[in-house]
Amino acid sequence: MTRFSSSVSNLRSSEIRDMMSLATAVNMISFAGGMPGNELFPLDTIDNIINSLTDNEKQVAMQYGPTTGLPSLLESLSDWLGKKGLPVKTNKLILTTGSLQAIHILAKAFLDPNDTVLVETPSFIGALSAFRAYQADLITVPLNGDGMDINKLKMRLETTSPKPKFLYYSPNFHNPAGIIYSQEVKQQMIELLKDQEIPIIEDDVYSDLYFYEEDVPKMQLIKSMDPQGIDVCYTGSFSKILGPGLRLGWMLVPESIYRKCELIKQSIDACSPSISQVIADKFIREGHIDDYVARVREEYKKRGLAMIEMLTKHLPEYVTFEKPRGGFYSWLKLPDGCDATKILKIAIDKGVVFVSGKTFDPDGIRNDFMRVSFCNTDVETIKRGVPILAEAIREVCEN
Length: 399
Ligand SMILES: Cc1ncc(COP(=O)(O)O)c(C=O)c1O
Prior knowledge:
It is a single chain. With 399 residues, the protein is an alpha/beta fold. It is 43% helix and 14% strand. The chain is built from 15 helices and 14 strands. It has helices at 6-9, 15-23, 43-51, 55-62, 71-83, 98-110, 125-133, 150-159, 183-193, 222-225, 255-269, 274-285, 289-314, 340-350, 379-397; strands spanning 29-30, 92-96, 116-121, 137-144, 147-148, 167-169, 200-203, 232-237, 249-253, 320-321, 329-333, 352-353, 355-356, 369-373. It has a five-stranded mixed sheet with strand order 2-9-8-7-6. Helix 4 crosses helix 12 (274-285) and helix 8 runs parallel beside helix 9 (183-193). The N and C termini lie far apart (45 Å). The site of pyridoxal-5'-phosphate has 14 residues, from helix 6.
């Protein structure tokens, strides 16, 4: 019998990954994946960038690079993040192989087996799996419409032993809950965590994809507030604003954490793909990024609004949902005890796939929620898919 490590034997394939094969089946309407629409990638711009590379740039692209990232991209990305209010001068940036790697590296930097970690319920499954891989105990804090339940966070901080190693949260257009954290909740989190030696991992991959300019001020990141007495480890990515195929993300962290993370990354993959870094650097330096993000933002808004309209029209009144104001997801609340996996099976038979709630429950139990994404389906497909989804819900919840 093959003897795997205890950390690996705890790993389970998530329903979301298993569903990916179905999501790509011909004619299946997919509300499952959290990826950009294929037709939205800036192919002409990428062609131009690749075709205009000099021999020297091509050599850099084909070569190993520094562990923390190519200097040119570190500089251009740093400028871009700085313009958005992030404290790039007083922190250090590391380019990573997707932001999921940034989360993994931070988990490795902080966690020993049986350590505790504060996470939201629901939470991004990729981060939960990373923390589980380092054998952490996940201590949950429920989400309300404006962020985590502060009383519960306070209670968790008072009662969790051993003391949590860090808090992981996602401030804007939460995956899967779709919410934006309010300023008040972020301020209260800062008050509670100040001088507690509990760093915050702030996972921010969707902030650029807002539907309404007026939301931008309240979407201010804790990292941008630069609170004293808390180490804030900010993670971001090109995945949702350019292309996940680049596998390029980043972390912006205090210097002491940076030094450890650099060593960890060195031991994992030496460096992130140079070819992706060269492309991303040109994409920023040639001034494409803001125009492109503005364009996809408009398209996701159309899709998001079509999703809201169709859900409002077709869902039974006992299903409620947070109206998304950006990002990729709607999060549907079914009547208590209603089983989203049963709905999923019926929906798949009818040709529609989504992700059931328990995938995002750190305890893996609550299944009376559904994550429905609108990023990878055009408006017409959303219009065809939602009535089918509503039919599947009725078949399960009314029988
Ligand atoms: C909240 C959140 N964080 C991080 C990631 C990881 O993205 P990537 O590793 O592609 O940068 C995702 C991807 O779905 C996500 O939804």
